[in-house]
Amino acid sequence: MASKTAGLFCVVFSLLIFVLLSQKALAKPTDHHDHKHDSFEFIQYLEGCHKGQNVSGLQELKKYLTKFGYLNYDHSKHADDDEFDDLLESAIKSYQKSYHLKVTGSLDTTTAKQMMVPRCGVPDVVNGTRKGSKKHNRKLKSIHGVSHYEFFFPGPRRWPSTQTHLRYRFASSARQVPGTENVRSICAQAFQRWAQVTTFTFEEVPSTSAADITIGFHRGNHGDGSSFDGFKGTYAHANPPKGGNFHFDADETWSANPGPNEIDLESVAVHEIGHLLGLNHNPDLPDAIMYPYFEYGMVKRDLNRDDIDGIRTLYGLQ
């Protein structure tokens, strides 16, 4: 009898352990980013690097600066190594000038901190040149003072005057992303912010219909030549006219009302629509919608005066 009782106890105990382990396994995915690391986290381990050093991981910094247009090795043998050479120093100086940082040419604390902030994936520069034409597009005197908006180069690129009603559709390669349940209404609100200061009107059409703009959530390499890099890296990107592609990174933590560890869906949508209409990044004004970097927990949905001046100048509405 004792042996039967002991056997039954063992069976019950085993079942209890199995249930507890199963619940633990099922509960694990609820913390969406336990297993993830920030995509730009590698930069903090390179802080203090300067010309003449050879430090493991510098090739990742080279990829970062290449991605955003500050560095072009043109098939140089140093593109994939960890040597801090003259070209890398020059690229860092260009980056520091662009963001009004102290120009040291080294990866100092302030520069590293700036680079680690999540940002839009659209490059700031092309072949070492800021996309805005200084002669025509930047620092124009106006009744509002000095303007800093920029257009795409070569360009400017704009939708033709006969095409002011733009149709958009949703088509994603990623499954339903948490925090994006209201993406259709949120994007409609974001489009409306630009409609209020331009002659554009926007209409959502079914996913199977022809459209001028396609919006979607994707991960990693998704076929447009601009791969996403995961959590807290490049959170979205969009084409200038008439490209029409607008992609969100499905690996980010999206929200309609962000907490400190979430990114605001509408704020990012307003920024990317600026690209779709022809505005490029504005590294001079952190308060502008078209500023490239965007912190988790921030909400920035209203067009800045400079954003409005830029889009109205681009389409001759001033």
UniProtKB/TrEMBL annotation:
Active-site residues, Swiss-Prot/TrEMBL: E272
Binding site for Ca(2+) 1: E252
One of the GO BP terms on file: proteolysis
InterPro entries, alphabetized: M10A_MMP, MetalloPept_cat_dom_sf, Pept_M10_metallopeptidase, Pept_M10A, Pept_M10A_Zn_BS, Peptidase_Metallo, Peptidoglycan-bd-like, PGBD-like_sf
Binding-site residues for Ca(2+) 3, renumbered to this chain: D229, G230, D249, E252
Molecular function, one GO term: zinc ion binding
GO CC annotations on file: extracellular matrix
Keyword Acetylation: no
Motif Cysteine switch, chain ranges: 118-125
Signal peptide, first to last residue: 1-27
Binding site for Zn(2+) 2: C120, H271, H275, H281, M290
One Pfam assignment: PG_binding_1
Known cofactor(s): Zn(2+); Ca(2+)
UniProt superkingdom: Eukaryota
Positions annotated to bind Ca(2+) 2: D212, G243
Binding site for Zn(2+) 1: H222, D224, H237, H247
Bound cofactor: record note: Binds 2 Zn(2+) ions per subunit. Can bind about 5 Ca(2+) ions per subunit.
SMART domains: ZnMc
Keywords from the UniProt entry: Calcium, Glycoprotein, Hydrolase, Metal-binding, Metalloprotease, Protease, Signal, Zinc, Zymogen
Stretches assigned to the Peptidase metallopeptidase domain: 155-317
Keyword NAD: no
Family according to the record: Belongs to the peptidase M10A family. Matrix metalloproteinases (MMPs) subfamily.
Name used for this protein in its record: Metalloendoproteinase 1-like
